[in-house]
Predict the structure.
Amino acid sequence: MGALPREFFNPRSVAVIGATRKPGFGSGIPRLLKRLGYTDHLYLVNPREHEIEGLPVYRRVTDIPDPVDLAIVIVPRDHARSVIEDCIAKNIHAVILETAGFSETGPEGARMEREIADLIKDEPVRIIGPNCVGLINPHGRFTSTEVALEDITPGNIGVIAQSGVFGSIVADWAPGQDLAVSSLVTIGNRLDVDEADVLYHFAQDATTDVIVLYLEGAKDGRRFRKALGEASRRKPVLLYKSGRTEVGRRAAASHTGSMSGVDGLYEGLLKQAGVIRASSFQELFDLARVFSRQPLMKGTDTGIVSTSGSLGVMAADAAVQWGLRFPDLSPGTLEMIERQAPAWMNVKNPLDVGPSGLFGPGLEGLLRDSRIQGVIAIPVVPDSTMRLIADRGMGPDVLTGDVEALRRLLPDKPVVTYTVGGAFWTSLARKTIGPHFTMVRSAETAAKALWALHRYYRFRRDNP
Amino acid sequence: MGALPREFFNPRSVAVIGATRKPGFGSGIPRLLKRLGYTDHLYLVNPREHEIEGLPVYRRVTDIPDPVDLAIVIVPRDHARSVIEDCIAKNIHAVILETAGFSETGPEGARMEREIADLIKDEPVRIIGPNCVGLINPHGRFTSTEVALEDITPGNIGVIAQSGVFGSIVADWAPGQDLAVSSLVTIGNRLDVDEADVLYHFAQDATTDVIVLYLEGAKDGRRFRKALGEASRRKPVLLYKSGRTEVGRRAAASHTGSMSGVDGLYEGLLKQAGVIRASSFQELFDLARVFSRQPLMKGTDTGIVSTSGSLGVMAADAAVQWGLRFPDLSPGTLEMIERQAPAWMNVKNPLDVGPSGLFGPGLEGLLRDSRIQGVIAIPVVPDSTMRLIADRGMGPDVLTGDVEALRRLLPDKPVVTYTVGGAFWTSLARKTIGPHFTMVRSAETAAKALWALHRYYRFRRDNP
């Protein structure tokens, strides 16, 4: 199969088949597309409506006088087949079939899904779905589902989600998580377009640097393996796979009709393909954020700088368990920090600077040290201290140094940060440090992120 | 050793030794205590100051004309010993020594620490510290460290943190995490009071129902084991222990002078003592919140109800890996839900209700089903849907049912919830569902929480 039609991501004209005035997707999607500027290129279809949102409603998609790039189908299940026939007749190349009730519900639904698959076999149309919400492309200002598109920052993370609800949740959640997305595609039951197609798409897509995959099971193991391998040789692929247990697999089967396969098989396949596997949904997107902004890590030699000894110890424990190592600091680095350090401070790696004010110099020292290949930075500041600083008109750079300049000056080593504490400090830290030294949600995730950056570095080096 | 003096938690009069006008703890703590109403019972001590915050400053603690319940000591290390001598002379029973620079920095500091320990051996004074921030008691409106005490809800979780910075962070972080604390005690280098003392205290303390322990290593393994066992027979004890690896142990040694011991030894000890071990700092406090509000789980038979199939599968996977089981629903429950269910819905356990609107009935069905002993509930709602509902003047109970009434009616089974999504939905859910069906930060944590509630149930049953 070839690449996905461009019409999926940047449709010039859209038909919403099953548009309605009743509350729900059927009215929400037309309203949203109109707001996004599709006014002249939005066609609503429903044999039982005449006018919605000030737009005329066509009885059938074939009645539309202009060419249609993409159809969003939200009709009841039993009408889906005839609507797809109309789409073929109208020469539409991209269809998003959002309707649920197919193979995920049992044999009858599966039969209807197969019928549609047979119908399009030799046609130039591609279908995403059914049982999905289609896609969201913040770069192209297009979405086939109700989300606050203007809140989602266009970025370089391509997301493949199997389930529609899950996709919507990620879209709702992304803005608060500082996740900048290239496109998000939900594939549902995959009667035609599957995870392999979207992997190939993201592998070639110029706006995508990192591919994130939430999957309950592959549709076609062989194709999936090939697509993963090819995508992974070009861009990091991060995966969260559920259906790891028998109960989970049975639940997945009735959710998106997935056969999740035996988990052990996947483990080997993913490893061979250089895929990074996340252990939770939150970790998946933390890792995506790290890969989208930080350089790869060229070795396992790690430095930690923290203002909280406890959190430094937690990060060190986790890093060691991921196979990272903590070399001694170079004599030059030691000397530079010791010159400024108070008597109580132990200058070594991991480096606990406590309240010495040496977090900035410590971080710079680790970044400049040729023995260190990646850094975990844990700036933790009590709200009372940060308020005192803010009251004097100063910012967190008093404590952390000028992280932006530091990143610009020394761009070659990954830095992952973690912080916790009061609302005042954490929101400031997120804004000032987060954009430069990617922030994750735990000391453990920081350690795994560095491991993953190194793991993928090795995969690329060994698979040129 | 006997119980900790009550003066630590509810001092009627406090001396701050090392108070100063310079910014920092030395001025922040007096200001805070004054604001908390200690005006008439706050005595500041510093030979080089005369007046701070409108209060007279005494040269030595022995110059104070009234009795002193508790002394907070923040003088430089080299003055600590003579200050403690004065405290003994003044017959003070509770001293919080916050000064750092003792055993965590090397042999010289360790020697000075031992000197103070020897000094108090036969005296009626107890010392918390050094290298700590003492304690926070929101019930008694007392704190020995700068935190926004009025933001911390008085509650039933007793927290023992080894490190001062860590304790401050937890105190800053607690309000945003809906953590209601009985007291938080940081024990630092433990020259006198150690984790065992505070465990005994919390085991007896009427305001404490759950004990949370962050430890880098025990001071005295035998005493610790005994205290853990005794505390655990009365109240659940949750622990996060760092220093699990050699690097982590070395880092811990220079942080609070801890010898963390070999981790394998701890694993056995903790299991035997019925202690629940958390795998991250975030998980530790999620579990604490669950134990502080939910009943124990009497068996392993679990139900899941979710509006997102994906998240339901994730929770099921994790639950199975923790040894929980998913029985079939009782015929009565099946019948009740099937009667209301749309055609596409698969009524079984785990129960994915999708957008059917049956989350409330599903949750009630699981709670009423005699085959189910604990429930994971995953209400996930797109922001667009929740906004539509809110625009009509309705609340999330349209989707979730009246969770408060449900909890009141059926209080015997634990329910742990997890949600994710947009800011609008998640903040509403936290407010309406969170207080009744404790909310945790991932599907994986929800599963572990139910396991822990059952694990502790068994421990209590087998160790009456």
Observations:
- The longest strand of chain B covers residues 154-161.
- The longest helix of chain B spans residues 443-462.
